[in-house]
Amino acid sequence: MMDKKNFYFAKSHEWLSNYSNNDYRLGISDFAQSELGDIVYIQLPQAGKQYKKDEKIGEIESVKSVSEIYAPVDLTIKNINSNLNETPELINNDPYGEGFIAKVELHNPTDLSLLMDNNSYESFVKSNHE
Amino acid sequence: MNNKNVNINENENKNKKTPLYDKHLALGAKIVSFAGFSMPLYYKSIIDEHLNVRNHSGLFDISHMGEIIVKGKDAGLFLDFVLTADVSSIFPNTIAYSLILNENGGVIDDLTVYKFSNESYMIVANAANTKKDFAWIHTQMINLQKSKLQDQSKFQDLTVENYSDKIGLLSVQGPKSRNIIYPLAEDISDNYDKSKNNFCNIFNFQYNIKPFKELSHFEFSCIKFKEINIEAVISRSGYTGEFGFEIFVSADDINKLWDYILDNKELSNLTPIGLGARDTLRFEAALPLYGHELDETINPYDAGLEKYLSKNKDFIGKEALEKIKNKEKKLIFFKLAGKQIPRHMQKILDENLKPIGCVASGTYSPLNKMPIGSAYISDSNVIPSSLKNFYIDIRGNFEKAEVVNPPFHKMKK
Predict the structure, then answer these.
(1) Domain limits at B175?
(2) What average pLDDT does the segment B367-384 reach?
(3) Closest C-alpha among B266, B249, B259, B239 to residue B167
(4) Which residues pair with B113 in a beta bridge?
(5) Mutate which of A40, A56, A65 to test chain B, going by most B C-beta atoms within 10 A?
(6) What residues contact A47, with CB distance under 8 A and at least 6 apart?
(7) Which of A82, B273, B284, B302 is deepest in the core (most CB within 10 A)?
(8) Is B234 contained in some domain?
């Protein structure tokens, strides 16, 4: 299991993880991908665009359902993971690694305190979905 | 992330469970509510399960489906009146696909009818419709029996019973299905004591035995599973567009049979398959699904099912259908160039973005790796046969679709 010490989770199941300075990766959690099932399409956010917390940044579609993806905090999209256009199943196979959605810059890194750490997120998922 | 689908868990407590529910949980299935039952949507992946059925074989729990038993000397005559297909004239041990219509010609359900003998039939109905079908059939029986217009002797030797809770139903589908069923099952011998209290006798039927390895498509027989000593009715039928079997057993025996088949899964690379892949498989084969291609506002001509309307007899709905001159709508099939999946009830738009119909089914084809669907074209100004391209309003995106001839998958011979 991957060490998720540096991961911060939103109640809507997106994660942010720091990889250098103020640069973060954004993705959806392992729980979220398992709930969706086989992902066949993702509408990625626009590079360069700014989003407010809880604003819709994209859409994920599996064989059986469609979900919206939200910005967990105020942020700007720096790059998108364009591999997902051709192989959206990377999100199923490696949600915290190759299946990340975008590289983002946080407007206020202190906003991370609004999110859950891995342990809190795991208890959140357990208490809400079991 | 916010899942926009209906909350599939909300009614789970009120739902019925098939006898195999705990097996599904133990296999890690994602459980959803379907037709009032808590059912496995998938065990690991809809796409993997789908491809396993296309390439090898798969095991489905479809015990949610309904079984209605119709017995008596007048059973054939009665069913011929209630159903659109000729039922009384087919051979024993064969199955007929049929529609059941209301007086307006709308489809109450689509179903299969198993003829055990001239006096005993089993109707296999969609789970969501079993109660409705049973009530409808029962009411027709009472009405006919009371009718002063009818010959009083008709329809008196007749019973209609709902056996759905007593019968479990498994389906083994895929090109390798023989490899697992042949070694595990055996014919019931000719000198078998049919008066014994065995499964094939639970309906209190006269029945015939045919060697099960010789069954053709839409034929059935009674068999026994070796080692576990469980009797079953087995038919060459299914809902996937593949070679396969459907197996009816006592609800009390189905757990044992499920385990017996899974214990031998290596014989045919068999895996359990959920309802998700059942839907993608049936749709690639262009088989209709009640609630999508069929409902009470749709008539058999709309759905392209006129070949199941018998010309040899009268049946409920026939008079109304004869008055229908112009088709009100027409079912078409399509594929998309984009990647977004069309969903039930989304709008179909012509090249000027004028609405001309609605999506019936929309899904992803694991075989062709693209979104596919069916739609009802309801605009009378559109000639469906000349329609080549159109748009689908998928949550505000106008996605281009191309009309194709079904099915999307044909069984390899």
Answers:
(1) 16-65+166-283
(2) 91
(3) B249
(4) B96, B123
(5) A40
(6) A77, A78, A79, A80, A102
(7) B273
(8) yes
Q: Per-residue pLDDT tens for A98-127? A: 999 999 999 999 999 999 999 999 999 999
Structural domain count of chain B: 3
Closest B-chain CA to A69:
B1
Quickly state the pLDDT bin for B9 (edges 50, 70, 90): very low
Nearest CA in chain B to A13: B1
CATH code (residue A13):
2.40.50.100
Domain membership flag for residue A129: no
Amino acid at B242: E
Residue B188: inside a domain, yes or no? yes
Length of chain B, in residues: 413
- pLDDT per position as a tens digit, B141-150: 999 988 866 5
A12 in a structural domain = yes
Asked if the Cβ–Cβ distance from B2 to A67 is below 8 Å, we say yes
How many domains in chain A? 1
- Do residue A32 and residue B1 have CB atoms under 8 angstroms apart? yes
Pick from B115, B391, B406: nearest CA to B285 = B406
Q: How far is B340 from chain A (nearest CA, A)?
A: 6
pLDDT category at B410 given cuts 50, 70, 90 is confident
